[in-house]
Structures are given as C-alpha cells and as structure tokens.
Design a protein that fits this description.
Distance between the termini of chain A: 73 Å
Shape of chain B: globular
Oligomer: heterodimer
Order of helices and strands of chain A: HHHH
Largest interface: A-B, 38 and 50 residues
Order of helices and strands of chain B: HHHHHEEHHHEEEHEHEEHHHHHEEHH
Largest sheet of chain A: none
Number of helices of chain B: 17
Helix content of chain B: over 70%
Helix content of chain A: over 70%
Strand order of the largest sheet of chain B: 1-2
Number of strands of chain B: 10
Distance between the termini of chain B: 66 Å
Chain lengths: ~80, ~525
C-alpha cells in the first residue's frame, strides 16, 4: 500500500476512534444527563410510537397513492368548504 | 357547520397549546447558549477557573432545557399532516423548504456541537470546545430563522404562484421569503430570547444571593446575564418597532385589532391602558373603549414613523378607506367586495377543474387567467359576512399591552440590576430586590408568550393571509379525536414542564452547596 494512503487511512481511523470515545466516555460519565436521556427516550417513544401512529397519520400521504389524487382531494375540499 | 367549527376551534386550541409549550423552551435555548458562549470566551481569555465554573453551571441548565424541549416542535408538524392537511398541501414547497432546511440544519449542527459542548471538556482543545459552544448558539439561531421565515410567509405570502393543476402554491422566488416581515420577526424572536435568558440568569443568581451562597459567582453571572439581557431587550424593542411598521403595511387589520381601533384618523393616539368595549362591532355606534388613557400621536408614530400619518381602524379597513402617502383618501377594496371577488376566484377554479376533466386547453387557460385575477382575494370567498374576517379584538388588544408593559418593566429591571450589581454589595444587601428578581422570572415568559399571541391571534382568521382561512385549512377529521389529543398533549407537556422545573431546581440546589468559586475576585 502506498505510504500516503496508509497515513490517510490511519488519520481517518484515529479521528473515528476519537469521535467514538468522545460519545462513549461522555455517555458513561453522565450524571444529570442520564435522567435527561431517559426523558428524551420516553418522550420520543410517546411522540412517535404512540401519538404519531395512533392519532396523527399524515392524511394525504396515507389515504392517497400519488400527488394527482392528493391535489384532487384538496381541490374538492377547498371548493366544497364554506 | 357546527361540527366543522368544533374541529376548527379545537384544532386551533391544540395548535396554540403545543406552540405555547414549545415556546417555553425555545427562547431559553436561544439566549442561554449565547450567555454560556460569552462566559466560556471569558474563561479562555482570562484562564480564570471562576469563569469555567460559571460556564459549566449555566451549561448544565442549558442542557436540561435543551433535552426537555427537544422534539416538542415536531408535534406541530404532526398537526400539519393530520389536522391541517388542506393547508399543508396548499402551501406546497414554500412552507416545506424552510422546514426541511431547519430539520437538517438543526439535527446536524446541534447534534454535533451540543455533544462536543457537553462531552468535549478535556477531550478536544479549549479553542475547539469554545468554537463548538458558539456553533451550538449559531445552530439554534439559524434553526429559528427557517421556522420564522415560514411563519412570516403565512403572514405575508410572497415569492410564489398558485398552480391550479397541482392545487398548491409553487415557489418562484426563494429570496422573496426574506421579506421585511420575516427579517423583523426573526430578529424580534431571537433577541427576545436573549432578554428572557438574561432575566432567567438574574433570577437564578438572585436566589444564590438570597441564600448567601456562591455570591461572587452570582454577581458575575448577573453582570453577563444583565448585559446580554439588556442588549437583547433593546434590540427586541427596536425590531418590534420595525414589525409594527411592516404590520401596518401588510396586515393593517392586525394593527387595528392590536389597538382596538375602529375609526382611525390623522395624528392617531395610542391607548397606553384601557378596556375595550366588548359590544363594539365594526358597524355599530358603540364607544371603542370603556375607558382609555391615550398617548397623543402614539399610533401614527408607531405605525408610520410620522406624527401626522393616517392610521385606519377596523371599520375603515372593512369599508376600504385608507389614505396614501400624499394624504389623499383612497378607496381600497372593501371587505364586502373582497368576499365577492373571492367567490369569483372559487368559481374560476371550478371552471378550471371542469375544463381539465374535458381536457379543454383553451377553457383551462381562460379559467386560469380569471383565477389569477381574483386570486389575491381567494380566502375571502369562504366568508358569508364581513364579521368573519375580523380578528378577536379583545385578546389581541390585551396581549399587546401585556407584552409592552412587561417589556418596559424588564427594561427597568435590567437597568436597576446592572446598576446595583456594579455598586459594591448593594444588590447583596437588598433582600426584597432579590425576591423581586426571582418572582420576575415567570413574567418574562408571560411577556414572550403574549408577543406570540399578538402575532397569531391578531392575524386570525387566516392561516395564510388573505388566501386560506382556518376553516378551509382544516382536514375532515372528527372533533372527538382532536379533543382527545388536545388533553393528551396538555398532560404530556405539563409533565415535561414539571420535570424541567424540578430537575433545574434540584440542579441549582445541588450547586448552591458546592463551592463554585476557586477565585473569589469578580
């Protein structure tokens, strides 16, 4: 392997390693952060896993196959509303 | 109709609830990130550990607010797709593009640099860490830009053309989105976040003074928070003035509602304090106010920066009466006429649709031309009476005054706090003032939310000014599901708020027993 290529790949690997340890050590040494992450996870599960799935479908995306149908639906809706 | 209005009303309440909750967290993120960045810069400049301790303390509170607030804005996007699907389609890529940029930018900038900010101590160079803190602030500020550009477009829709085939507005000039309304709105919101965070820092620091713990740290924090808050508030007032001028040009009905003004005039005064008469309508002879204290010339100056300028009231606007720059009375299009023209635009759209079904190109072109002519009044076609096009005057009037009165109070608050904190020991000795500083904190949030109420209630009944009223923007969904989710959100957001406040209080309490001072000089 070309020495230059090897040094570039070593630098990339070194940077990736540093980034990994930044996050890994950061998460391991958290104190108040643990509670916050728990809140974030619970919140995201409630928002996306429950609210979005059960109560907030994207009506136009789920009820119609293509943009033409969506446009027709909105046209009908906007013309019938008073 | 009743069920439609129930769905509209509950959806509006739901959107208002989620937006208000979301805005509890956002301004603190915008301002506290700046305060932390300034403190860290001072640490790097002075190499004094006292600034490091201050940076870390406020950074932790920033982190708590950031974590609790993150993703609360996504709920608004859920609501666009479910409750407001007609609106979502109608606004097309104009609303989508800024929000997509915001999503990408917020995610990449904030996820990267917030992590370095919290995890990077000792792992990256001090300069890189400082750069990450500043970039976190910048990321949050830029992220707010796209949201506010999208919001401003709804208040002043420009840079697009309606395509009846696609049934949506298509962007034809991206840069037009950065209108005077957008620029002022963005700066007003961001600077108000600085002011809010300044009040927050002073309020929390006052608690340290009250408890006589980490006093030098508290004094130091008040100096940074006070200056950023004061600068933020002055800039908020300046951009608020710019917003008033823009509103006068593009949303005169909102300005009239803010003022509770039905019959305008030259050299128009502004009501400093008063009660609007709930029985007053645009076409009766009741008095506008039950009582009022008016500052002469005030509204003319606010609206047009001219002592003698004419400012139209609600009845003037409804009747199409205005005055041009030369002082000549001019007739704009009255609301009754707008309703007729709006209905003609609907008729043109219907003709276009029929012609399209017949594949009659010539008829389609003719209908499209007619539609273009009347399109500026498209939204008025949904109204049966002029009254439907007038915003709730009372809420707009009082919200405006709450914002202005509290804003003025906080100007005094910053000046006094800064004056006393530079006078040796004065603030430390004045217990009652420390209590006032602590009690003032929630009022800053009330001030900030009142500003949004002026902006959003004052533009009713429109989701997109003149083009799409709320009752047309709504999806065909059951009111029961909206009511259920409204209460679910109320519960979830209240739990989050209680969590935020209690975690913050615990963190502040914990830190008050620690020695945040290595170097006691300040």
């Amino acid at each position: 392997m070309n020495p230059n290529t090897r040094s570039v790949s070593a630098a990339i690997s070194d940077t990736a390693n540093k980034i990994w340890h930044l996050y890994y050590d950061g998460f391991r040494s958290m104190t108040v952060g643990r509670t916050l992450w728990l809140i974030i996870i619970v919140k995201v599960v409630i928002f996306f896993g429950i609210m979005k799935l059960l109560f907030f479908p994207d009506l136009l995306k789920t009820n119609f196959d293509n943009d033409s149908q969506r446009a027709d639906h909105v046209r009908n809706e906007l013309l019938k509303k008073r | 109709m009743d069920d439609l209005m129930t769905v509209v009303d509950w959806s509006r309440w739901q959107f208002a609830l989620t937006a208000i909750y979301h805005w509890l967290f956002v301004p603190l993120t915008l301002g506290l990130s700046l305060i932390v960045a300034v403190m860290e810069s001072l640490y790097l400049k002075t190499k004094s550990e006292k600034w490091l301790a201050a940076t870390k303390f406020w950074m932790t509170l920033f982190g708590i607010n950031f974590a609790i607030g993150v993703a609360t804005g996504i709920i608004l996007e859920f609501e666009f797709g479910t409750n407001w699907s007609n609106y979502s389609w109608f606004v097309g890529d104009i609303f989508g593009a800024p929000l997509a940029i915001e999503g990408l930018l917020a995610f990449f900038m904030e996820a990267t640099f917030v992590a370095v900010m919290f995890f990077g101590w000792g792992k990256v160079s001090p300069r890189f860490h400082l750069a990450s803190t500043w970039l976190t602030w910048l990321g949050a500020s830029i992220s707010a830009l796209w949201i506010l550009v999208a919001n401003a477009w709804m208040q002043y829709p420009v840079g697009m053309e309606f395509d009846p085939g696609q049934m949506r507005n298509v962007m034809d000039n991206f840069w037009a989105l950065f209108s005077g309304i957008a620029v002022n709105k963005y700066m007003h919101a961001v600077f108000s976040g600085w002011a809010l965070s300044g009040v927050f820092v002073i309020g929390v620091s006052a608690w340290f003074l009250y408890k006589k713990r980490n006093v030098p740290f508290a004094v130091r924090s008040i100096k940074v928070g006070g200056w950023i808050g004061l600068i933020g508030l002055l800039l908020t007032m300046w951009t608020g003035d710019g917003s008033a001028v823009e509103v006068t040009k593009h949303q005169p009905m909102k300005l009239a509602a803010m003022e509770g003004l039905y019959r305008g005039g030259y050299s128009q005064g502004i009501v400093a304090a008063g009660l609007v008469n709930p029985d007053k309508t645009w076409n009766n002879d009741e008095d506008e106010y039950l009582f009022d204290i008016t500052v002469p010339y005030g509204l003319s100056i606010l609206a047009k920066h001219d002592l003698n300028a004419f400012v139209p009231g609600i009845s003037d606007i409804v009747e199409g009466i205005d005055v041009n720059e030369n002082g000549d009375t001019i007739n704009t299009v009255s609301y009754a006429e707008r309703i007729k023209l709006g209905k003609l635009s609907h008729e043109a759209l219907r003709e276009y649709d029929l012609a399209r079904a017949r594949n009659d190109r010539a008829a389609m072109d003719a209908a499209e031309q007619k539609l273009r002519e009347y399109y500026p009044y498209f939204g008025y076609g949904y109204f049966d009476s002029v009254d439907e096009a007038i915003p709730p005057v009372g809420v707009t009037f009082y919200s405006f005054r709450v914002m202005v009165i509290l804003g003025s109070y906080f100007l005094l608050f910053f000046v006094v706090a800064l004056f006393l904190v530079y006078k040796k020991d004065w603030l430390q000795r004045m217990k009652w003032l420390q209590i006032v500083a602590m009690v003032s904190v929630p009022f800053m949030w009330i001030c900030s939310e009142a500003g949004w109420m002026v902006a959003e209630v004052g533009r009713q009944p429109w989701t997109v000014q003149d083009l799409l009223p709320t009752k047309a923007a709504i999806s065909e969904i059951s009111s029961a599901s909206v009511i259920t989710t409204f209460w679910l959100f109320a519960l979830i957001f209240t739990v989050l708020l209680v969590a935020e406040v209690s975690i913050m209080m615990r963190q502040i309490g914990k830190n008050s027993t620690k020695n945040l001072e290595i170097d006691n000089s300040h």
